[in-house]
Amino acid sequence: MLNLILLGPPGAGKGTQAAKLKEKFNVPHISTGDIFRENIKAGTELGIKAKAYMDKGELVPDDLVIEIVEARLLEDDCKNGFVLDGFPRTVYQAEVLSSFFQESGWGDYKVIDLYVDKEELVKRLAGRHLCKSCGAIYNVPGLPPKKDGICDTCNGELYKRPDDNAETVLNRTEVYNRETKPLTDHYDKMGNIIHIDGMIGLDNVFAKIVKAVEG
After folding, report:
1. Does residue 178 carry a catalytic annotation?
2. Domain spans in the chain, listed from the N-terminal domain onward
3. 161 among known catalytic residues
4. CATH 3.40.50.300: does it fit domain 2-117+179-214?
């Protein structure tokens, strides 16, 4: 069973690596960001509440995030494991997740921490494009689509998220460093975290993650 948590600041490559892990291990990629954006698009009460925080590059409050993540992890497709991307983001959320694991009788989980410097994060997110249909992630010029503005996988339209601009990216990075970075200390004490340099290339990062989870 693959129970894996991906940590790292916005732009570290969590979504790209999660998609590759999903394909290799046949487990769902659970992105809290995607779940919130789906609710925002649908105009749900949760989406409206989350949008007010996300538009400013701030973290969505713990109670909203915990509620939706626990419900998602109880769905049938998570029985053989999952890749969790975007949760936990605070030590409190991590403690709640650990309690949830114990209460659910699941096995242990591993944590991968991808680290990338601030200048590289801004560069990556400035060129990031996502597919409106399947959510595939591209980066110009680092990982461009074969046809400009068109997804290689489903031919869907590519778009840029409105919060992928330098000012908001820097704010999101500061929020991450202030509120989420302490998670690495928390998991270091637990002994279940692996730190990986997120700047060594997509394939090299993926190979290191696979080696870590299979080792």
Report:
1. no
2. 2-117+179-214
3. yes
4. yes
